[in-house]
Each structure stands twice: as C-alpha cells, then as structure tokens.
Design brief:
The chain has about 240 residues and is of the alpha/beta class. Helix content is about 35%, strand content about 20%. The chain has a nine-stranded mixed sheet with strand order 3-2-4-5-1-6-7-8-9, with helices on both faces. It holds the Pfam family DUF1995.
Length: about 240
C-alpha cells in the first residue's frame, strides 16, 4: 500500500514514479499537484525533471511567461533541453516530451492550444491551476472547458492538506483520504475518482458538522498534526 511521503524529497520521488507509471499505461497527458502552502515551484521542478533530462533536446519545459523561463535557464545553467515561456517560439520537430510548469487559468487557452498541437506526444503538467471561476467563468463555459480539455488530463499525483484531513493520490492507486490518529496518519477511505468536499465531509463527520457536536473538540489537535505534516513537507 502506498504511504504518505515524509518530506518534500519523498513527495517529488513519488510524483516522478506516478507520472512515469501513468505515461507507461498509455495516458499522454498527466497532472502532478503538490498543494503545499507557499511552495516554491522552481526548485521542485528542477528536482522533478531529473528522470527526463536524458532526453536532451527532445525535452521542452514550458513556463507561464518568458521571464520565469529566463530565470530558470539562468539558475539551471542553460541546460541542453528547451526552457521557454508558453508564447516563446514554435515547438520544434525534435521536441517529443513536454512539461508545463505551474500554468494558471490565465494561460489555459494557450496550454490547451499547445497540447492539441503536439498531441499525441506526452505532456506532464506540474502544479497547474487551470480552473478559476473568475477567469474561465461558471456554468456552460466551465463545463465546455472540462469536457473539451481538462477531462483529457489524468491526475496521476495529488497531495493536498485540507482543513482536517489529507487528500492523496499516487497512480495507479485510487484517491485516498488520510487523517491523523494518535500522532499517526491513517488511511480513512479510498475513492475511484477525486472525492468532492461533500464526500470528504461525509466521511469525516457523517454529514455536515453541527454546532455543539463533539467533533469540533478534536479539531485543534488535528490541525496541529496537519501543521506538522506541512512543515515536514516544506523541508
């Protein structure tokens, strides 16, 4: 059984393995989400891409803008693989593997356009945030985006501390919810697809939390445990 990572290094190692497993299984678009507060993406990205740098010029990293791409090139010593902003230069014929670094909902149309243009070449999206109501809207527009593009992306790795639990997925394992019990995180349940906030609430409380119920008495200790977990992952 897959376990929660103990630190950020283990998190990245798990994410690398999950991404490769999903690609090997035939998924051409996979997503890695490490949702740790105030996570600095550039050092995480530099570690995450290590198994893929042997591709050399076949590899292209795509940052949201030219400035962040230039910063990465400078800090990483102008490596032999391509590091570009989303709108910088056309995809080259020799480029066969693509990693998007922290694209946001502002760039979602560009990400979709590039993914469609390079299909079926493999794509990894590292810490994307492609859905934002204030940018892509709600209702029909949001559903079209999900049906047309977001639904084609396999969420192969997901680590997200919530208010009172941890949501975890490491491909090929199912989605899991973990909770601290006596100082040790225990798996509470598995889900075949990503559980909603209502699903998690139902699991933890058997429904909505009511004022005056005993469940709130355990919250401070649980929050302390979550804070310890997040701190360990940030090391």
């Amino acid at each position: 059984m897959v376990q929660l990572p103990n630190d950020l290094n283990e998190t990245v190692i798990q994410a690398q393995a999950a991404a490769q497993a999903a690609l090997d299984a035939g998924h051409s678009r996979v997503q890695v989400e490490i949702k740790i507060p105030e996570l600095k993406i550039q050092p995480v990205a530099q570690q995450f891409i290590q198994p893929f740098i042997a591709l050399g010029p076949q590899l292209r990293l795509l940052f949201p803008d030219a400035g962040s791409a230039a910063l990465a090139r400078r800090d990483w010593g102008n490596p032999p693989y391509g590091i570009r902003g989303l709108l910088e230069t056309k995809v080259q014929a020799e480029e066969t593997f693509f990693i998007f670094i922290e694209p946001s909902s502002v760039e979602v149309e560009d990400v979709e356009r590039i993914c469609d243009a390079i299909s079926p070449r493999p794509v990894i999206l590292l810490n994307p945030c492609l859905e934002n109501v204030s940018v892509v809207g709600i209702g029909y527009a949001s559903r079209r985006l999900r049906d047309r593009f977001l639904s084609t992306i396999e969420p192969c790795y997901h680590l997200q501390p919530l208010d009172q639990a941890i949501l975890f997925r490491c491909y090929p394992h199912p989605w899991q919810v973990w909770q601290e019990e006596d100082g040790i995180y225990q798996q509470r349940a598995e889900f075949p697809t990503k559980p909603s906030s209502e699903d998690i609430e139902e699991l933890l409380y058997g429904g909505a939390v009511q004022e005056g119920t005993g469940s709130t008495a355990q919250k401070p200790g649980l929050l302390v445990g979550l804070q310890r977990f997040i701190k360990a992952l940030s090391q």
